[in-house]
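Page header: ASSEMBLY MODEL / two components / 414 residues total.
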Amino acid sequence: MEEAIKKEILYDLSQAITILEKRDKNDVDQLRTLSDHGIEDVAVHKNLDLISVTVLIYSLYKIVNSIPDKDYQALIRELQNAKGSLEKNQLGKYNNSIKTLFQLVKKCNAKVKVHLQDVMDAAKIKKGAALFGKGLSIGQAAGLMGLSNWDLQAYAGKTTTLDQHEESIPAAKRVSTALKIFGVS
Amino acid sequence: MKALFFDTGPIITLVMSRMIWILPELKKKYGGKFYITPSVKRELITRPMDIKRFQFEALQALKLIKDGVLEVYEDVPQKEVARLHTIANSSFKIDNQTMEVVQSGEIESVVCALKAGAEAMVMDERTMRLFIENNKEMKALLERRFNKPVSFDAEKMKQFSNELGSIKIIRSVELVGVAYKMGLLDSYIPAQKNGREILVEAALWNAKFNGAAVTEHEVEEIKDFLLKK
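Prediction written out in full:
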């Protein structure tokens, strides 16, 4: 793993641990901010390990208020394990911890039924849309998140936050071109 | 060659907005070929066939191929696609990291359209369009979105524009506009004074809410244009 990626992941994990260690009502906002920070790194580095951690943090943000105490403690322990393994460059152990963390998220989601669709799919779509919002193409953003273009385009059409984009050719001119191409007056 | 090349986005928009039925009619009027590339077929049909949520949508796209409305252009110049993909994705840097902003599949469509001498590309993808039509604006866009300085390779961007900049691009929302002007949507006009305006507005917003890359301001501009002429 590249040193720059490792540094970013360690930062994200440390912040997540700090946020979650003391359970309070600000956790949700703080996790969301952390996840937004993560997506900028994903856009720049396009690294799968970084994508996993960013999606994980967004998933935690979505379910944090509904996690039972027992699972909550297990979650913090596993975040600490992941951080410790990565610090020691024990990548096998680190990957196992990340896998366990996703399993915990899935388990919590099944219990609380937060969303109709799996929370991690939702997280991927949300984060894919954020990448699209940063200027990546739909295909590139979907590809990075392991989504199809259908997933992302269906979401992008329904959100107003992605509406602001720049066009270099006036719309009327483009319609006029299209009418000429089809021989319609 | 009298042909149009379609990217994935416009077909997804037309399927999701329940307006894919206009495509065979547009093709008849056009009198040429409607092509997609193998990458577009993969993203449009092969991949969603494994996703239950989009399986029927994929079947609708597949039907267009079965009916001969869309044809797959197999003669992809792979080396050319790879070369331009490398140029595009090495043109911008943030924090000294190259920004990979477009996928090779998106470039494939444009390269094939140029190779085949197609009349235009039908493409909603705004990043790719910006790259082709005004790639200097791409730098400004990335700087605004990341709030960080972006360095760019002016020579590569110029090369990209020189090679791909000649292609005309229209979007799904323009296809809807053409369909309206052809009278294909007339049976939907409500029986009231401003019936045509309501229809045009509804059709354009329908496309927008199903992924067409068009801003609110543009919807108004296109509506005025279509109703004026």
